[in-house]
């Protein structure tokens, strides 16, 4: 048997890819705290585009036509604000907590798919949404139930929920993109358009980072490309229903990197809430898995 065709390799690739993305989040939190969310997010997108674009150009030099380009532009705009709000939330909240709450995005995406794609919502999906909401409330209530709630925490939670809504809508756009463009093209325009959208605000918010922050941002850009490509490789070789559970190891990776780099403790309510959200996503997943070949995405 060819070693590259071993049935266990997609699991390892997906596991590594999720780890790359979680490490990227940790790098971006560090860079955002050092040089500002806007600068870190802008440079990450532009550097990621610079890394992936040559691969796309070498494989296909035909420029996307009108309808396809409109999808690339739509996702790029959505992803730009999704990334900015998520990275801002990371500067205000522990990484594991932010990742756990962001798991509600696939549940919200079920309703967006109904609104924008005409897909039917099953009873399982409705029940899963309620369970996912309960998990989110466990995490948020524990955060808000403390004696003193800082304004930064409230801003972080608001930013995170807004990012999750954009992430959910992002699933709808990816569903359309996956039918008309390949993963390398999608990744190229995802980072490129997102970077150009953010570039519009450069005269007002850009701050030149120091050497250390720039290296961290470059590392985050490389991890973004590596994670996206490794996960795409895995999903091209194994059914989504077999790899979906691997996505939730992102919480474990986030807890690890949050502790290693920022000494962030993972609280019991966060673990309980994350478990409820993961179970909810698992309940809702079967219907989506049967008919979906959606490419996995990241910020």
Descriptive notes:
The protein is mainly alpha-helical and 299 residues long. Helix content is 79%, strand content 0%. The chain is built from 13 helices and no strands. The protein has helices at residues 9-35, 37-59, 66-90, 95-102, 105-117, 123-144, 151-177, 183-199, 202-205, 211-235, 240-247, 249-262, 268-291. The longest helix is centred in the first third of the chain and has 27 residues, at 9-35. The two termini are 36 Å apart.
Estimate percent helicity. Answer: over 70%
* Euclidean distance between termini CA atoms: 36 Å
User: Nearest-angstrom radius of gyration?
Assistant: 19 Å
Structural class: mainly alpha
Major beta-sheet overview: none
- Percent strand equals under 5%
Mean pLDDT rating: 86
The helix tally amounts to 13
Shape: globular
Keywords:
mainly alpha, 299 residues, 0% strand, single chain
Helix and strand topology:
Layout: H1 9-35, H2 37-59, H3 66-90, H4 95-102, H5 105-117, H6 123-144, H7 151-177, H8 183-199, H9 202-205, H10 211-235, H11 240-247, H12 249-262, H13 268-291
Helix pairs in contact: 1-2, 1-10, 1-11, 1-12, 2-8, 2-10, 3-7, 3-8, 4-12, 4-13, 5-7, 6-13, 11-13
Structure, briefly:
By secondary structure, the chain is mainly alpha-helical. It is built from 13 helices and no strands.
